[in-house]
Design brief:
Blueprint: H1 8-18, E1 23-39, E2 42-62, E3 65-74, H2 81-93, H3 129-142, E4 146-162, E5 167-182, E6 189-196, H4 204-217, E7 221-222, E8 227-233, H5 235-247, H6 251-255, E9 262-263, E10 267-268, E11 280-283, E12 317-321, E13 324-325, H7 332-338, E14 349-352, H8 359-364, E15 368-382, E16 387-400, E17 403-408, E18 410-415, H9 417-423, E19 426-427, E20 431-433, E21 445-447, E22 450-461
Parallel strand pairs: 7-17, 8-15, 14-21
Antiparallel strand pairs: 1-2, 1-4, 2-3, 4-5, 5-6, 8-22, 9-10, 11-12, 11-14, 12-13, 15-16, 16-17, 16-18, 18-22, 19-22, 20-21
Helix pairs in contact: 3-4
Length: 464
């Protein structure tokens, strides 16, 4: 094979030509990233990377059903193609029938720029951000605080081709900024983060000012015992909880009685009211500023994701509508098993609660309660109730008579996001946010702050 076959769309086409399987899906992911890191008010490292991952999904029809073989490899060259295709076919022929087998998605859908070169990022994405960060370093140094953190930007151009005729492409930008401010003795810490598509909307000086305020709040320390407290959850914390909830929203698991969305008798809680507030949890691949792939890109099957659904169109989906459970995630296979609509997962999440107050305005309306910064080390305790445990981090503050009066100790919490939605008494203004715990896997989120009258701080934690 000619070594000139190196462009992503050419790699996809050649892999499809080489396939002798009954069906074939090829996904080429072209990745590029640029990053900056800093510590103690000074840049430490920066770098740019490039990479390619090719996934070949072979399907083989047998007497007992259709089997699949899935093989993914990185840094694939033209010479690697045939061995990769043969490995996928061999895996399919050696496998038993795939439980989620469906006909591959058919059609002549083709993205207009399928044959164009992949979009790439570079250090130029930080052209405006880096000087502003330098000014933030100077302000922090003058204010007696140290800034630590990193900024990362990546572009993934995904090319999807199938033996049934689909030729689809999606270009996904993704940027994250995490910024920590510490007191000189490192005993006090505050965190802020932001998700962005291009770093043009990131203001490091504004974030530093927010962190300086939080370190100021921490000058007074108040120790509190474990217990239930009125608590203001900022958008980042709400996102981390609801992302885990959407990951746990499998229709099949619910119908089989294994989740918080199950009802006795093999049915689900669809239609049941989960919240008194008019909360709507939704995903939309065309959501402004949170755009994601408008078709299924499945590199493996599992749960309610299926490689057979690759290329299936995605549309706006409401998971919770006006407080009632409206949809659970399904593949075509699990939709057929449960009798529910086909509603695959979408790579963004928005919660609308009808509120218009900012977090600062919610603080001003609080007689006594806790204000969190973020959550981390979230783990599942009980899938039947979706009970989660985790820790608060980088600042929990006491609010009295509408003002923050000091920092309190950290806590371990035990809560279910489904239970929290049911008990929330106020939702603030929805805004884009960076989930701190799940930011390595899920960044496109917009959430309001939530007021919970009785958030369960189950024990005191010594974490910072």
């Amino acid at each position: 094979m000619s070594r000139s076959v190196t462009k992503p769309h050419e790699i996809v086409e050649r892999a499809l030509e080489l396939s002798t399987a009954d069906g074939c899906v090829v996904i080429a992911d072209e990745e590029s990233s640029a990053n900056l890191r800093w510590a103690g008010n000074a840049l430490t490292t920066n770098g740019v990377t490039r990479g390619r991952t090719l996934t070949v999904i072979a399907t083989v029809d047998g007497k007992e059903g259709t089997a699949t073989g899935v093989v993914s490899r990185s840094a694939v060259t033209a010479d690697d193609l045939e061995p990769l295709v043969r490995a996928a076919e061999e895996a399919a022929r050696g496998a038993g029938p795939a439980e989620d087998a469906q006909p591959l998605v058919t059609g002549t859908a083709a993205s207009p720029h399928f044959t164009d070169a992949p979009v790439e990022t570079s250090s130029a994405v930080f052209a405006d951000f880096a000087p502003a960060l330098g000014e933030a370093f100077a302000r922090a140094r003058a204010g007696g605080r140290e800034l630590y953190g990193f900024a990362n930007h990546e572009f993934v151009s995904s090319y999807l081709g199938t033996s049934t005729g689909l030729r689809l492409r999606h270009d996904q930008p993704n940027g994250t900024l995490e910024l920590n401010a510490k007191s000189p003795d490192r005993t006090k810490s505050a965190w802020a983060g932001q998700a962005t598509r291009d770093f043009k909307d990131v203001d490091p000086q504004a974030l530093d000012a927010e962190l300086a305020q939080r370190l100021g709040w921490a000058r007074r320390r108040v120790d509190l015992p474990a217990g239930r407290y009125e608590t203001l959850l900022p958008p980042t914390a709400v996102a981390d909880l609801l992302i885990y909830q959407i990951w746990s929203s499998s229709a099949r698991d619910a119908a089989e009685g294994r989740t918080v969305f199950s009802k006795p008798g093999g049915t689900t809680r669809l239609g049941e009211r989960l919240a008194e507030l008019p909360l709507t949890l939704r995903s939309d691949p065309h959501e402004p500023g949170l755009e994601s792939a408008p078709f299924v890109l499945a590199h493996a099957s599992g749960g309610d994701a299926s490689v057979f659904d690759n290329g299936l169109s995605l549309g706006a989906t409401e998971w919770i509508r006006d407080g009632a459970l409206a949809h659970l995630t399904t593949s075509r296979h699990s939709a057929a098993l449960t009798g529910l609509p086909v509603t695959p997962a979408i790579d963004n999440l928005v919660l609308d609660g009808g509120g218009d107050r900012s977090l600062d305005e919610m603080v001003a309306a609080t007689e006594r309660g806790l204000l969190l910064t973020c959550l981390w080390y979230i783990r599942e305790v009980d899938p039947a109730t979706l009970l989660l445990t985790g820790l608060t981090r980088d600042g929990v503050y006491l609010v009295e008579h509408g003002e923050v009066v000091g920092e309190v100790n950290n806590f371990r919490f035990n809560e279910s996001p489904v239970g929290l939605l049911g008990r929330a008494s106020e939702a603030g203004r929805t805004e884009k946010t960076l989930p701190r715990e799940w930011g390595d896997w899920f960044t496109r989120a917009a959430m309001p702050a939530l007021r919970v009258p009785d958030f369960n701080m189950s024990s005191v934690s010594q974490g910072v």
